[in-house]
């Protein structure tokens, strides 16, 4: 029995779905900025995720002791004020100072981090199925 064609593989279609979602997020992040934040007043901290200008940023900001942090979950979107972003920003950046930190990943780098192992898996699977055909008794 010959191996199944590649267009019948679930791994191909699931990978295409993930790749489509990441590509859509990359293109959409240039038109709309999304900000998601979770404030923890007991720790005087705010954890946030920002999607803007082709990047995903995760950060933690500490509030000074006399300041009372808002509590709860915040989510809002806005349109960028300066519509001149770079299509290929740096792959990643990390910032740390005074208890605050932020880590930024570019969408193109996320796509590359997904695409290389996914294509390697598909090639490995195709090669394995080609060299080890299943025999029907």
UniProtKB/TrEMBL annotation:
Spans traversing the lipid bilayer: 101-124
UniProt keyword annotations, A-Z: Membrane, Transmembrane, Transmembrane helix
Protein's recorded name: DUF3592 domain-containing protein
